[in-house]
Amino acid sequence: MSIASISALRGLLLTLLLVLTGCQPAPPAQTRIQGKTMGTYYVVTLSDSYPGGESALKSDVERLLARMNKEISTYDPDSLISRFNQGPDHTPFVIPPAMAIIVQQGIDAGKLTDGKLDVTVGPLVNLWGFGPDKRPVKRPDDAAIAAARQKVGIDKLTLTPQGDHFLLEKAIPALYLDLSTLGEGAAADEIAALLKHKGINNYLVEVAGAVRSKGNNSKGSPWRVAIVEPSDQPGAFSDIVIPNGMALSTAGSYRNYYELDGQRYSHIIDPATGQPITHKLVSASIITPTALEADALDTALMVMGPAQAMAFATRHQLAAYLIIKTDQGFKAEFTPQFAPYLAKKKS
Ligand code: ADP
Ligand code: MG
């Protein structure tokens, strides 16, 4: 075929394509933004149009996340939390309400879970190399673990309301507040609140493992979220959840870990032993009205391990879904409260 006829054919194809796409009904409105925050990623998908469009949505969300990081990021030496951590004991430290909500959730979930979730666990997190400090080159010794444990305990932290603000106080100078495990849930809730304020009724917000959703996707059906199976197969998932306006949060030991002398160390620390968890629970998902609460409880379940986590979730009638490693692969277990949120599997 000559060059001329090839280009004529190309032209025809292009026209055909344009006609074809022109005949299609207008695609439903969908706005999707994504970015990085808190050492991870976020994605916001709307099937309503945002006032000011996609760029306004992105700048509003990023401004909100930047403000949150200035409050709770232990990676920013100048954030409020870092200044509190570096500051003296027995000195009331003023924090804004948004940060106080996160601290209060940490304290409440700590009490509810008998200290499995402990937002003062930072010295141990750092000792094991999962904080802003560097990775250890060898396993910390018992004396170092014991010394770090002396600095840990929710009883050494108090939060008191005062007017429009809250006062945070520590009983020992070395107390180190670490809200990392609640940050994703808190961010998902705050983005959801921003969207509500802007009159958006159909959205899916994902900040790493924390999800908030409302209404329907652009195809008019409820939002669906996959619980990822921690296997090596890309795209493998364990189940599909339809959160129906509720929040979903998943914590796992399979994403953030390192190996030292053949032993795998997860970034979730059992405050009772001062060591990373070693059991066979690989992920815990929770559905509650707010992502903050779900994010607090999923971490606590991860600390507990499979049997204790299931017993706790059953006792508190939580909608919980656990993925447990078996000799053959993985198995999922969930409470009756979780079942209504599972999409029916196609057989
Ligand atoms: P995941 O990736 O599993 O969702 P997160 O990033 O939400 O986990 O939380 C893990 C972080 O929480 C750790 O890096 C550490 O800073 C902190 N952390 C570890 N163990 C505990 C614990 N027992 N209680 C509270 N926070 C913890
Ligand atoms: Mg969590």
Describe the protein.
This protein is of the alpha+beta class. The protein has a domain at 72-180: Orthogonal Bundle (T-fold). It is 35% helix and 25% strand. The protein is built from nine helices and 17 strands. The protein has helices spanning 3-23, 53-72, 80-86, 97-112, 122-127, 142-149, 180-197, 291-304, 306-315, and strands spanning 31-37, 40-46, 93-95, 157-162, 165-170, 203-207, 210-214, 225-228, 237-241, 247-252, 257-260, 263-266, 269-270, 275-276, 281-288, 319-325, 330-334. An eight-stranded antiparallel beta sheet has the order 1-2-6-7-10-15-16-17. Strand 13 (269-270) and strand 14 form a beta hairpin. Mean pLDDT is 88; it is low at 1-23. The site of adenosine-5'-diphosphate (ADP) has 21 residues, from helix 7, strand 10 and helix 8.
Key terms:
T-fold; 25% strand; 347 residues; binds magnesium ion; binds adenosine-5'-diphosphate; eight-stranded antiparallel β-sheet; 9 helices
User: Could you give the order of strands across the largest sheet?
Assistant: 1-2-6-7-10-15-16-17
**Cα separation of the termini:** 49 Å
Please name the CATH architecture of the domain at 72-180.
Orthogonal Bundle
Q: Find the count of extended strands (DSSP E, 2+ residues).
A: 17
List ligands, each type once. adenosine-5'-diphosphate, magnesium ion
Proportion of beta-strand residues? 15-25%
What value does the Rg take, in angstroms?
A: 23 Å
